[in-house]
Design a protein that fits this description.
Layout: H1 6-37, H2 44-72
Helix pairs in contact: 1-2
């Protein structure tokens, strides 16, 4: 059986951390969308702001992934 190297484990861990962060941002965006639909919770402005911040984080992480792919080529 082949033993995984530390480099392989490190790359997999980076990918996993990125995936978890993406899921977290998507969950925040979906929660903000639901809260906006139910305008009784905290006012619409705060919900839209939370959604915008989450989308900004998500797009920033996607940009990092694209740059890594471009650098790998």
């Amino acid at each position: 059986m082949v033993e995984p190297t530390l480099e392989f484990i490190g790359k997999q861990l980076e990918r996993l951390i990125g995936d978890v962060a993406t899921i977290r941002d998507e969950q925040i965006v979906q929660g903000a969308m639901l809260s906006r639909l139910d305008s009784r919770i905290g006012g619409v402005e705060a919900v839209v702001l939370a959604e915008l911040r989450s989308l900004h984080n998500h797009l920033g992480r996607m940009d990092q992934r694209v740059r890594k792919l471009e650098d790998a080529e």
